[in-house]
């Protein structure tokens, strides 16, 4: 009997490879959840087509109106309204790629965006930063650099967004500082602002030269991305339209994101807000394909509600959750990879902030989003990114990463030998099965403290928010940037110095 049990134990150990943690290429394991029946989704899609055909989209950029007219749209130059036919939309959806290969600074950071895949971004676009040490303040280049370091340090964050605005750098030079930061401190997928062609072309050249790419190699795949927000209701402004065109022609990805708040910039119902969001997204997607058929473009939405007493945005609400589910159904209807968003309207990193962010996150997960932005750190409805909240939200994101990595169920995992070994009323702490696995089998928390109350109070009763301060400080203080070719670093800095001497590039309005 003992020899047989020894053989069983040896087979069990051989059949139990060490767990490999891989948060870099996540697959959403959850079946998509529907908010509406399929016939209602079809009715919503048809309503969006009616909006485009009969009500139209106001397009402020003359070049964009010319592209729409050449593609068959009816254009009223006096009112700048563009009326887009269903055939144009269907043609655009037929050429827009259903999967987008994103080339990061290192091959192990590459991503493929498509339905079923999953990527996370931290909070983005905030004018302010906050932490428990320095307080709430206008965002600076230092804040952006530190947040990029944190983003780079966690594999479950896949893309670098514009976390906070570097407001201490003038607008005509800011894109140099922020792009340099992304290239030198991270090897993940970088973001570029769409604030006019001169700034966009600067960004393209910086990335192309730093990566050692020819013009043809750069245009063949997406090496950066931008986020395009329509001005709801029914306006594509000049910088955003130009960004759609510039990125499409260069073969780089645009993430189209109408920002529709129910009761404010959109109808107060989920269905009405999503009909508007869908119409705006399709109009922008159509423009990319008119500029260059096959251009990579990501369907997107950011739809929630407002507090009707104050007009303030609200996130992590039932309406936000439901809108995400509807967006997922519409994205599957058109077949494109798509972007959704979490976020919180809480003013500090408290229980409200955690609840809103997690509820919004689960709406995105259940909807089957390909990219989830504002998944860590976002406060005040996007006015602030919190260092501590990035860390506490990472706790949840890495739990999701574990779920996406899958739970094994081999014969060894079923652990029949361990059940034979441990007698009734015994424990499994010292069982052979446990000892062979405990160091590499389980999720390791970022900031959670699972000690009992007595031990916790003996150590000073530090809560998760304050523990997070120590975590981000250690990450920033001990950060090691990716290794880069010194000649390319020098060339990047020389390019920035030369363009700064020439006056930089002012954003276009």
TrEMBL record:
- The record's top EC class is transferase
Q: What is its EC number?
A: 2.1.1.-
**A UniProt-annotated Pfam family:** MTTB
Which Gene Ontology molecular function entries are recorded, alphabetically? methyltransferase activity
Question: Which keywords has UniProt assigned to this entry?
Answer: Methyltransferase, Transferase
Q: Which InterPro entries match?
A: MttB-like_sf, MTTB_MeTrfase
Q: Where is this region: Disordered?
A: 1-27
**Record-level GO BP terms:** methylation
Q: Which family does it belong to?
A: Belongs to the trimethylamine methyltransferase family.
What is the name listed in the Swiss-Prot or TrEMBL entry for this protein? Methyltransferase
Q: Which organism is it from?
A: Aliisedimentitalea scapharcae
Lineage, broadest ranks: Bacteria, Pseudomonadati, Pseudomonadota, Alphaproteobacteria, Rhodobacterales
